[in-house]
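Reopening: HNH endonuclease still failing for me.
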Amino acid sequence: MAPTSSLAQDERLSCLYAELAELTGQRNAIDGRIVEIVAEIDRGELWAGAGARSVAHLVAWKTGVSPSRAETLAAIAHRADEFPQCVAGLREGRLSLDQVGVIAQRAADGSDEHYAQLAATATVAQLRTALKLAPKPRPEPESEPDPDADPQPEPEPVPQPSVTTTSDEQYTSWHIRLPHVEAATFDAALQSHRDALIADWRRDAEKLGGAGDQRPPMPTVADAFLRLVHAGWDAEAAARPHGQHTTVVVQVDVTDRVGSLHLGPLLSDADRQYLTCDATCEVWFHRDGRTLGAGRSTRTVNRRLRRALEHRDRTCVVPGCGATRGLHAHHLKHWEDGGLTELANLALVCPYHHRAHHRGLITISGPADQLMVTDHAGRPMTSASLARPPTQPPPDVAPCSGPTGERAQWWWYQPFEPPDVNDEG
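Support: Ran it again with your exact input. Result attached.
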């Protein structure tokens, strides 16, 4: 009876393998279509109008996948035009999302054909190894010195730090130039603050538990830089002239409702309301050229009111966000329009969505017990994903048995090497 039983198990396993191959091909093809949709959203930057922080955030929010899988989908969508063969393999069901995702996230330009052929047999781990073996970009060769010129020794300049800034209508760009020693100190400080932010991010993820797909994105170097600034904000205030604290000052003309930074540029209506909404800066009001004062103290959310607000809202109130750090107390009826600083007129929002609201990308209206959040088109925003039972048959694609997974002989492997742009031949 043993041979008969073993034969029955083999037949059953073969049937399961066949069904698994067919479903895998269909899943890959569906992922390929999702990538096309995400690419269209990315090209038109439609995610901003939907109230999302990025295209990856929109994908995680609306499809219910994890942030890491959403990053993979966004990476493939962003580079779909650079890897048409790999994306075609995904749409045809031959390649998986993870295989194409590794390529899109790490491969050099022009390597589409190379990795499309390799992915037909290589596992995800083998593709990662192949990408590690790829040569790094080579620096441009320096010009040849003139042999007839007399060599003149030049004294080495003393490294001098420098900071330059450029501004446009929305952003100010900082270019910081530091000697290596000071740069190492700066890098270490940035890294330590980013480590602290990541630790907080992980604690938030653990608290969210099953709702981890709604957590904020991983902290960036820019977040660490801002944390570094705030950490040293008033560390030595007593040593400054008059014990002056670091304060952002805004000047507002109450008649024309025009605001500007102190000794700085004019502010847009959105930025003026953003700065005066959470009372995180010093605002001076003027009428007919006369200074009225620094505004009512009731504009400020005191500590007790802030605690009540945090207990009630816990996270950013915008659906699909889930941010818990650095939240602003937003006036639902703006303070400029007579909105009161009380619990019913306040809501916690993250800095991104606070700016998005004041710039008209989303609308947050109250009172707090009847909170309504809509996107730029007036559509109500909810935390629910778009997933629903399918109403159409699955894609008609060939079954996918996956990569062979055989042991790779790396000494025979020829890594992709970008063509030398300096080679005229």
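Confidence is low (pLDDT under 50) at residues 241-245. If you still see a failure, please send the error message rather than a screenshot.
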